[in-house]
Amino acid sequence: MGVLNSPGFLLIATGSLLGLTFPLGKLGSLAGIHPVSWAFLFSCGSAMSLLAFRIATRKPLLVNFTNVRFYSLAALVSLVLPNILTYRVIPELGSGYTGLLFTLSPLFTLAISSIWQVRMPSRLGLLGIAFGFVGAVTVAITRGEVGNPASISWLLAGICIPLSLACGNVYRTMAWPDKAEPIELAIGMNLAAASMLLVLILILPEAKFPAGLATIKFTVVLTVLTASLLIAVHARLQFVGGPTYLSQIGYVAAGVALLIGLLVFGENYSWITWTGAFIILIGAAISVKAQKSA
């Protein structure tokens, strides 16, 4: 269990898995899957697989008013809103660029944490966040791929993703139910998110499910596997590292998404974007060092 208590390892693992979800989401978009349906696949698939594992190990999922309220509110701001937005803006901004917007999450998380006096980073940690923010701003001014800049409205929609995630990071830390296990809460949150998204699928005629999924079976399986691992390590990192450190998974995810976007999809970004990505990488390295020194 030692490695599962290491914030540095959990940060890299969680960020890498998150970064992989962006190109997978782009494959879903290219196959014509509606963003709501793809978000449902992510939450339902991961929740069902982890719930089956929990049942097999004879560990119950605690259901009471406090936990259900936590599952519902956390699911709305941490999963439903950011996932729908993510899969909607990827076709407009590119998978790599969308991943880079996640690097704004630490700044928003720090601001909200400061207001509510939740766990704060050290001076070195603040320096890492500052580097990450400078890199993120550098990236944002390029507005997507070379020759195909996104509109301001899509950029603002993309910025709403890390803002929503930041609210979720702080809420989960403040409202964490007593004696609850990270994996238990992760399953409950994704079950709640899947329920909300299922309602949307039934309401929205264009969000058909499972229309189109049969044509990308391998992508579907890989998405469910990635999502299952992601929510497991994500919940553990939240418990071990706190909200501000957790938010820095965006730095790692951005690098992974950018490289896959370049190598697999041929997404073309300017030297300014790459400069910003390099500055973000420096910020991530400083943040990891700060956590180890804490």
Write up what this structure looks like.
With 294 residues, the protein is an all-alpha fold. It has one domain. Helices cover 77% and strands 1% of the residues. It has helices spanning 7-30, 35-56, 65-93, 95-101, 105-116, 123-140, 152-175, 182-203, 217-241, 243-247, 249-263, 271-293, and strands at 144-145, 148-149. The protein has a two-stranded antiparallel sheet. Strand 1 (144-145) and strand 2 (148-149) form a beta hairpin. Helix 1 packs across helix 3. The longest helix has 29 residues, at 65-93. It is globular.
What is the fold's blueprint, element by element?
Elements (H helix, E strand, L loop, with lengths): L6 H24 L4 H22 L8 H29 L1 H7 L3 H12 L6 H18 L3 E2 L2 E2 L2 H24 L6 H22 L13 H25 L1 H5 L1 H15 L7 H23 L1
Antiparallel strand pairs: 1-2
Helix pairs in contact: 1-3, 1-4, 1-9, 1-11, 2-3, 2-8, 2-9, 3-4, 3-7, 3-8, 4-11, 5-7, 6-12, 8-9, 11-12
Provide key terms for this protein.
single chain; 294 residues; mainly alpha; two-stranded antiparallel sheet; 1% strand; globular
Distance between the termini: 20 Å
Helix content: over 70%
| Element-level helix/strand string | HHHHHHEEHHHHHH
Q: What's the helix count?
A: 12
State the total count of DSSP E strands: 2
What is the alpha-carbon Rg in Å? Answer: 18 Å
Beta-strand fraction estimate: under 5%
Tell me, briefly, the overall form: globular
Subunit arrangement of the protein: single chain
The class by helix and strand makeup works out as mainly alpha
| Integer average pLDDT | 82
